[in-house]
Structure formats: C-alpha cells, structure tokens
Amino acid sequence: MGTIATAIAAILLSNPALTMPQGPPHGRGPGGLGLHGGPMGRGLGMMARGMSAEEHGNIHALLSAHETIERTVEEIPGGVLTRTVTSDPALVDVLREHVRQMSARLDRGRPVRMWDPVFRDVFAHADAITMAWEEIEGGIAVSETSDDPEVVPLIRAHAKTVNAFVAGGFEEARPPWAGRGMGERQP
C-alpha cells in the first residue's frame, strides 16, 4: 500500500496541471499569492503554486479510508445538500477540515484538478456558488447552491464525482492517464 500511495503522491506533485491554479483568479481573494503571501512559484516549491501539504495530506487520508466514509446527496432547489460521515473517529476532523479547505479555495478562485472538466467548470463559476456547512455527529453537512440555473447541474455533477471518490478511493480519484489498478496504464 505504501508504494501505491507514494506513486500517486509522485504523480500529483510532479504534474503542474494538478497543482497549479489555471487561469486568472475569480476576483475573490488574493489571487496570485502563494504560501506566506508571496508571489506564487518564487522559491517556495510546487506547494506554493497549488495545494498545501496539509490539503494533500487530508485528501490522501480521506481516499485511503474511503471505506469508513458514508455520504448522501439530496438534490435541493439550486443545488445539493450532502451529509458525509465516517465511522473512524480519527478521521472526523480531517473530513471537516477538508470541506473548509475546499470552500476557501472556491472563495479565493484557487482551483484544483483543472484537468477534470467537472472541477474546471465548478471553479469557473465559483462566484455563482454558495457553500454553507454544519458539523454533524461523525462528520459534516454541506449545502452547495447557486441562483444561476446553468450552474446548478455543475454543482450536482461535482457531488456525483465526490460520491465516486468516496465509493472507490484512489481508484476513482486517479487521473485518467494514470490507469486503473496496480500501476497498469490503460487507454
């Protein structure tokens, strides 16, 4: 398992398309600032241009323990209401922090997975999306909505994609060019 996780981390960290924000910020925050408030890519390494080590670590922990996570998605007017819980008490805070981190990235126009059309479309419409969350026993409930009827299907597609991550862990989250299964490259 450690070898697979190391390989996935190497793929994520070595590919700028996975970690670098693409395009201009959406006008919702500091934009081109990296860690410590400095310009992105100025001697701070790949993490300054993309996700922090903590963000990567939380995603890795959630994907690794996906079998302990249960998630429901309810379509509501304008979007979705999700409830995500884990049976692993050590993962509850990680799950909650991940939601806060990704919400902050949406607010700041700091996209992730820009190679993935679902994530690219959601971040392209970040200004039209409202997220609110509430801690619940064992996890977090999140409403993600928009008043823009063209954005609502994007929110719902994102929820389905995250459900696939919960169901399949790394296998579902891996980029399409990385193949499916124990290091095999498939078309």
What report would you give on this structure?
The protein is an alpha+beta fold and 187 residues long. It has one domain. The chain contains 8 helices and 4 strands. Strands 1-2-4-3 form a 4-stranded antiparallel sheet, with helices on one face. The protein is globular and about 35 Å long. The protein starts with a helix and ends in a 14-residue tail after the last helix.
Cα Rg: 16 Å
**Topology as a string of helices (H) and strands (E):** HHHHEEHHEEHH
Shape: globular
Helix content range of the residues, please?
A: 40-55%
Q: What is the tally of beta strands? A: 4
Please give the oligomerization state of what you see.
single chain
Average pLDDT: 78
The portion of residues forming beta strands comes to: 15-25%
Largest sheet: 4 strands, antiparallel
What is the tally of helical segments? 8
Distance between the termini: 24 Å
Total domains, how many?
A: 1
* Uncertain stretches: 3-49, 182-187
> Which structural class should the secondary elements be placed in?
alpha+beta
Strand order of the largest sheet: 1-2-4-3
